[in-house]
Design goal:
By secondary structure, this protein is an alpha/beta fold. It contains eight helices and eight strands, in the order αααβααβαβββαβαββ. It has an eight-stranded mixed β-sheet with strand order 1-7-8-6-5-2-3-4, with helices on both faces. Bound molecules: S-adenosylmethionine.
Length: about 260
């Protein structure tokens, strides 16, 4: 594992010392090359904002979103708070998630990992008027998650500088569709929701065990025709390894151009 981490760091360091920097130096001069390098260094130190080269291979087949959701319309998708924080759901991923919500017309949506509530509010925006969205994040008195490391465990909202989950929707009219639950998703009692949920977005803790547990729960609360989406496949090691394993039993697909993995049951 130590070796893998060292290789990851070396790989990212090579991004900094890449031929592009030399090219900029030769064609645009010292100033531009220095600006480029300082930007790359900033990216390098912000581990979460870079595509991380996971040690697990990407085994899940990559398909275009239209292959999973025939007729899906991504020609026009309205977004609230479109710009992501570093490491957050990318604009194009948010567009695809919202288009899936529109295509699916879900009555009950579950999100694991609320954070500031950016994906929550956008899923609420694109869901039917009578839809309900349950979103889970950790209670304020829970121990910090990031102790396992940003890559293995993922940071919790407090470590990302977000004082409480759901800030983006707490005073928004769309709040009427959203129920925020403060609980550890891996320990939460999901039995009242068994077989009832149309769409689950798994984006909570990012270590292998938690992703495996959240996925198991997502499977138990969904039914035939439901959809499960995961964020950070191919970006975070725990997510990638857990989904590779799960894909031995379920026909999970990796949506092209994104880190979203998708299971249409
Ligand atoms: C990557 S962020 C979620 C981002 C959000 N889904 C979005 O699209 O903007 C992960 C969130 O999961 C929360 N989290 C981590 N472990 C959790 C757990 N065991 N149960 C519930 N939430 C958890 C963190 O506090 C953090 O806010």
């Amino acid at each position: 594992m130590k070796m893998a981490r060292l290789l990851q760091r070396l790989g990212r360091l090579m991004l900094v010392l890449n031929p592009a920097a030399c090219f900029i130096l030769l064609t645009e001069g010292k100033g531009k090359a220095r600006a480029y390098l300082s930007h790359m260094w900033w990216m390098f130190t912000l581990r979460e904002s870079l595509p991380v080269f996971t040690t697990s291979p990407l085994l899940i087949p990559r398909v275009r979103v239209e292959e999973v959701f025939e007729g899906i319309d991504i020609s026009h998708v309205e977004l609230l708070y479109p710009m992501p924080r570093p490491g957050g759901v990318k604009v194009e991923e948010l567009i695809i998630i919202c288009a899936i919500v529109r295509a699916l017309n879900p009555k009950l949506i579950v999100e694991i990992g609320t954070c500031e509530g950016r994906t929550t509010i956008n899923m609420a925006l694109h869901s039917p008027e009578d839809a309900q969205l349950i979103t889970l994040d950790l209670p304020p008195d829970s121990p910090p998650q990031g102790q396992k490391g940003a890559i293995e465990g993922g940071l919790d909202y407090r470590q990302m500088g977000i004082p409480k989950p759901g800030l983006l929707f707490e005073n928004h009219p769309l709040k009427r569709k959203i129920k925020l639950v403060l609980a550890d998703s891996t320990k939460f009692d999901w039995t009242p929701y068994e077989g009832l949920v149309d769409l689950v977005f798994v984006d909570g803790a990012h270590d292998y065990e938690s992703v495996a547990k959240d996925s198991e729960n997502a499977l138990s609360i969904t039914k035939e025709g439901s959809v499960i989406l995961w964020h950070d496949y191919g970006v975070v090691e725990g997510v990638t390894a857990a989904l590779n394993k799960l894909s031995e039993r379920y026909p999970i697909k990796h949506i092209d151009g994104t880190s979203i993995a998708c299971l249409r049951r």
